[in-house]
Write the structure tokens for this entry.
Amino acid sequence: MSLQESIIQGIQDAFMACYQHAIDLEQVSLSPTKKEFSGDYTFVVFPFLKISQSSPEATAQQIGQYLKAHVSSVRDFNVVKGFLNLEVAQQQWLELFTSLYTAPSLGQLPANGKKVMVEYSSPNTNKPLHLGHLRNNFLGFSIAEILKASGYEVIKANLVNDRGIHICKSMVAYLHHGNGETPASSGLKGDHLAGKYYVLFDSLYKKQQKELMEQGKSEEEAKKTAPILVEAQEMLRKWEDHDQEVISLWKTMNTWVYAGFEETYRNMGVDFDITYYESNTYLLGKDIVEEGLSKGVFYKKQDGSVWVDLSAEGLDEKLVLRGDGTSVYITQDMGTADLKYKDFHIDKSVYVVGNEQDYHFDVLFKIMRKLGRSYGPGLYHLSYGMVDLPSGKMKSREGTVVDADELIQEMIDTAAHHTKALGKIEGFTEEQAQGLYEMLGLGALKYFLLKVDPKKRMLFNPQESIEFQGNTGPFIQYSHARIAAILRKAAQLGVDLSPTGFSQVRELSETEVSLIQLLQDFERKLKMAADEYSPAILSQYLFEVAKEYNRFYAELPIFHEKDLQVQAFRVALSAHTAKTIHCGMRLLGIEVPQRM
RNA sequence: GGCCUUGUAGUUCAACGGAUAGAACAAGCGUUUCCUAAACGCUAGAUCUAGGUUCGAUUCCUAGCUAGGCUACCA
């Protein structure tokens, strides 16, 4: 039983003893006491006044008396209004720390026997990844790691959108203007090469529209009849008919793009256990339409189109199959949902997709639940907000996107610049220095994108957003490097880091206690992050740990401390802090250095 | 039009219905004969508006305003 649990248990007993009334454990809020009041944990009595039938102060007094008398860890208490502040005995903190310090594992909750798939990234093959994808990829990777650490078996999946009219647009432009250009001949990364022709298509298309309108056609007509668009549509039909030439060009260009993506993924430090391709899944789902019809979940209109009526659930009627029998987006999504289940027998399925598709996933999940899928209740849309620029929303056609590869490189360059300016790479080989720049640049970027609640829209200012000071990745990384230096020195001095080395410590400072209090909260935060699908919770927590450690570092001496028991304790406390930071940052996909 | 989501210091972000709304950056003032100053301490600064529920509301409800998204036989 943890310290808090034993206190909560004591509070329950207190209510039984004082008021002959059982209270619900869930309702007891026990939180760390605010800095401006004395005490370690605070219990709020207001919700229980009906039970005690007395004033907040009197109730708090009575409970406090009981706890002091009956719960060994409670040394003393004070009451401010309806707030009961409890003081924990010093010895308890040392015991608590020792149990944390000697625990066989950190940051891995017991297996729960459940399987979850996390689908993320899911790029289109007609253009390179941009800033928005970075948020998606970092979120997806991190939440997968967090779920793993909280006891799930996790499958990371990527669903590549490799077909459709947008791919054909790049292909048409390339066909006419590519002149046989390849990634090798141009020195362009494959995904950037494809993106170049996608942009080219758009400008050619606009030009043709303009010409048609000058010839007297309406805007709408011009948009529909521009030759280059017609050609792209024709190409899509040929693709669906397995036309040799089209398929061959498609394969060639996609191969280039995949090579480019692979490089970007490697730089980002994300990976996948399985990759699905829409060219293989886009025909799935029609059998589910049949199933839905026979189960009465769907209905057919006169023109043969198939619909689902979700008005009882607060949504509209939605089309699930066109009148001509062809699929729409949701048809294949139904099929893919089943495919994922067939492949892995998952209990839960998480989709990391932007919030502009909230409605779509609402519909999809309601359908799968109506169809009675076993994994239906475990469907979850990890919906995240867009990343805006100071100029507003990113638009690929207007050239206002922040390219992922470029941004990563800029981050690394900036990290290199800072590090050199601070003169921190003495004794580093060129390779080690380069490794550090990458670790710091990427750490800054990932932390910046992960520290914000995923649901919220966020702003990215290329000039100002990426800092290396304050609430940042590098700050936490720096804290780790500081501790690493201490541990090296402790090893040199032969400090006894076994629990007996500090078991005689009697007096702890306030800062040491807060640090222990924070450190013991790690697994609870981990679980919270998993339950709420929010790496931000973990990010904030790690920042608090690093901040509290730096205060400890500034306030208290370690190697100048004469009492060797105290010295050993402080080294051990440092070591466990480093371990927690390392473990937590790993769940965010961020590495931590030994020196910086 | 309908539906969903947002609105907190100058800026970017926090706050299970709980105390005097926390951080970081920017601003100002300090800290280095001492383990890494990418650090630490101090000062100043905010809940969109109007009602309601509650012992207590940034949080829940209603209305409005603001910003964004969705509302295709597009993906």
